[in-house]
Fold:
Amino acid sequence: MRTNRTDFATTQFRVLSDDQIETIFLGALEVLEHTGTRIHEEQSLQLLADAGANVSGDLVHIGAGLVQEMLTKVPPRIAVGNRNGRRSMILESHRIHYGTGSDAPFIIDAETGERRQFTKKDIADAARVVDACENMDFFMSLGLMSDVPTYSYDRHQAAAMMRNTVKPLVLTAMSRHGLSDILEMYYLLRGGRDAFEVNPGFIVYLEPVTPLLHSKAALEKLIFSAERRIPAIYTPGASLGGTAPVTLAGALVLSVAEFLVGMVISQLARPGAGLIMGGVVTSMDMHTTVFTYGSPELHLMDAALTDIAHWLKIPMFSAAGCSDSKVLDQQAAAEAALSIMASGLSGANLIHDVGYLESGLVGSFEMVVMSNEIIGQVKHFLGGVQVNEETLALDVINEVGPGGNFLVHDHTARNFRKAFWLPKLMDRNRYDPWKDAGAKTLGDRLRERVDEILATHTVEPLPDDVNAGIDRIIAEADEQAKAEEASLV
Structure:
C-alpha cells in the first residue's frame, strides 16, 4: 500500500489565498468601525445600541469585537426541504445547487418568441419547467407577475411556485407582512409552525442598498426571518465603478462589510439564525451603464466571495446561467457555460439566476433548459478523476494487450455509464443522420423540449384544504392591496 497520500475527489479551484481573504475581511471591519453604515429600521438600531455599537441617528459604527462575537453564532450549514418534506438541499462547505433567478419583468414567450411582461401563468409554467429539469435543484420565480395587484403580488407569486414544483423555493416578499402571509401558506402545507421550523421549505432573498445602506423593509424581513427560523440570504448587489469601487478588492471589502451588518443584526435578533452570504457583484459597463450579467468580473467576484464565505464557514449564494444577450443565441450559450463552470468550481451553495437574458431583465424557458444540460456537463466535470484499482484498469490493459480493443471487454460495459456524460439535447450524431433527421440546431431542440414539458409535465396538486387556505390568504392580501392603492389616489 502507498502511505501518506492525498487524493482529490473533485476538481480544485480557488481565487483568493487565506492571507488575501484575511486582508479583505480586516478591511471590511475597518469600514464598519470607521466609516460606519446607515440603518433605516428602529428595532435594528436598538439591537445594535444595546449590543454596544455606536449609534448616532441612523449612522452606526460597529466594532470588530461585536462582529467577531456574532460570527461565532452563525450556523455553518442550512438544510432545506422540498414540498414533500424531504431534506433535498444541504447548504454546507462546497456542496453546490443550481436554480433560477427571480423577478425579471419580461419573458421571451415560448410560443411566439416575443418579449413581453410576465404573467401569473408564466410563473406557474416556469415552475413546471424547472420541476422537469433534473439538474435544477431549487426554484426562484424567474419572473415578476404583472397581472395581479401590485401590493399583493408576492403572495400570488409564492402560491404559483408552491403549486407547480416540488423543489425547494427561494422567495422574495415586498414586506414583513407579505413574508408573514407566505409563511402562513407554508405552515398549511407543512402542518404547522413546528414542522416548518425543523425542516424549512423555502429561503427568503433580501438585500441591502449599496453602498452601506440598510432599508427598513429589508431589515424588518431579516429580523422576522431570524425570529421565525426562515433561512435568509443577505446579498449585496454592488456595481464596480458605479455603487462600489472599480477595483475588485475594494468592491469585495464593501460587499463583505454590507453582509456583516446583516449578519450582526440577524444574530442579535436570534443567535443561530440561518443566514446565507450573498454576492452578485459585477461591473457597470462604461459604454452602456448596464449592470452586466455575462462579464468575467461577475463570476470572478462571485468566486472570490465564495472563498471568503468558505473561510467564514457560512453558506454562499452565487449566480450563473445568465447572459447579457437579448435572445438565446451563441453569446447566451457562451456566457451561460462559462458562468455555470466558474460557479460550480467555486463551490458556492446556492447558484441562482439560471435562465436570465438581457442582463437580468428577461427570463427564458429555453435558457433554463439549455443551462440544465450544461449543468449536467459541469457536474460530471467537477467529479474529477477517480484513481483506484478498478479505474486504473491495469489488469484490463494487460488482458487486451498491444493492438487489441477495449470495446467488447466487460470492464467497458461495467464502467462506461459512470465514466461518460451522456447528453440529452447536445447533438453528437454524424452529418448524414443529423441532416436526415431535419438538421435541427440546439435552438430547435430546446424549443421542442420546452413545448414537450409544458404539454406533458404535471405536478401533483396540493391537498384541497391547503389550496383553500392559500386562496383565503391571497384574497385577504388582495383586499388590503386595494385599500393601499386607493389611499395613494
About this structure: Residues 145 and 157 are 7 Å apart (CA to CA). The first strand starts at residue 37 and ends at 39.
